[in-house]
Amino acid sequence: MPLQPFHPAVTAWFRHTFPAPTAAQAAAWPSIRNGQHSLIAAPTGSGKTLTAFLAAIDALICEGVANGGTLPDRTTVVYVSPLKALSNDIRINLEAPLAGIRAELEKLGLPDVDIRTAVRTGDTPQLERTLMRKLPPHILVTTPESLYILLGSESGRKMLGTTRTVIVDEIHALAGNKRGAHLTLSLERLECLCQRRLLRIGLSATQKPIEEVARFLVGVGEDAALTLAPPPASRGRLGGGQTSP
Q1: Angstrom distance (rounded) from CA 238 to CA 231
Q2: CB neighbourhood size of 232 (10 A)
Q3: Which of 64, 74, 100, 163 could form a disulfide with 113 if both were Cys (CB 3.0 to 4.6 A apart)?
Q4: How far are the Cα atoms of 52, 62, 176 from residue 80, in angstroms, in the given order?
Q5: Which residues on neighbouring strands pair with residue 80, listed in sequence order?
Q6: Do the Cβ atoms of 167 and 201 come closer than 8 Å?
Q7: Phi, psi torsion values for 217, nearest 5 degrees
Q8: Is 239 left (phi over 0), alpha (psi -120 to 50) or beta?
Q9: Cα–Cα distance measured from residue 226 to residue 52, given in angstroms and rounded to the nearest whole number
Q10: Are the beta carbons of 184 and 218 closer than 8 angstroms?
Q11: CA geometry: angle at 242 spanning 24 and 143, to 5°?
């Protein structure tokens, strides 16, 4: 079963929220959990975003529970979207899963784990940027341009230097243009900064040649697991429509 490897609180939240994993989720989670770069190509409503985020959230939950509810003040997940509006939507849509999982932790009598999220785009107020530098979010939502700017500042590099996972949404809209070329350089700079191999997850519409989009995601000398999902049934929010069984 695709949900078995996840923490019991994560599994309970998912089962209380959705009837079952989508085809994209069931196909991609094993590769992501094994640390394999993954490109998930599926129509809107296939649960792509939750597919990408849930393994990273699960890792943070497991780490926090193991440490009595405490997570280090460091950024571990960077989500990159080509659209500022989408970035804000993603941050808002993360609130429900995170709150739901915390409620399940309480039911299980386990320590509360507070996973912080933040958006960093050109529209982010200066006060929020200052707070972000002082207390880094565990999940950072940003754009290609803002990622480039962060990598060019000392405070930005300090925040990004603990990254483990990079999620690139709407990657098909970036592959093959100047913004995409800029992003590939930023991803290589980020990996060099972190001095570790970063798990790269791409989210794409079903577009051909999908293998070229995969190569764009991972760069030279790496491979990505491809998940091609059929059109979905109705789902909600990060899972893709209905938010109850």
Answers
A1: 16
A2: 19
A3: 64
A4: 12, 24, 17
A5: 142, 168
A6: yes
A7: -65, -45
A8: alpha
A9: 13
A10: no
A11: 60
Please give the single-letter amino acid code of residue 70: T
Residue ranges of domains in the chain, CATH in brackets = 22-206+219-228 (3.40.50.300)
Residue 18, token pair as written in the block:
């959705």
Write out the chain's pLDDT in tens, 245 residues. 577 789 999 999 999 999 999 888 998 999 999 999 999 988 877 788 899 999 999 999 999 999 999 999 999 999 999 887 767 788 788 999 999 999 999 999 999 999 999 999 988 999 999 999 999 999 999 999 999 999 999 999 999 999 999 999 988 888 888 999 999 999 999 999 999 999 999 998 766 788 888 888 887 667 777 766 554 444 444 544 333 22
DSSP string, 58-86: HHHHHHHHHTTT---S---EEEE-S-HHH
Rounded Cα distance, 1 and 226, in Å = 20
Question: What are the helix (H) ranges across 108-227?
Answer: 126-134, 144-151, 154-160, 178-194, 210-218
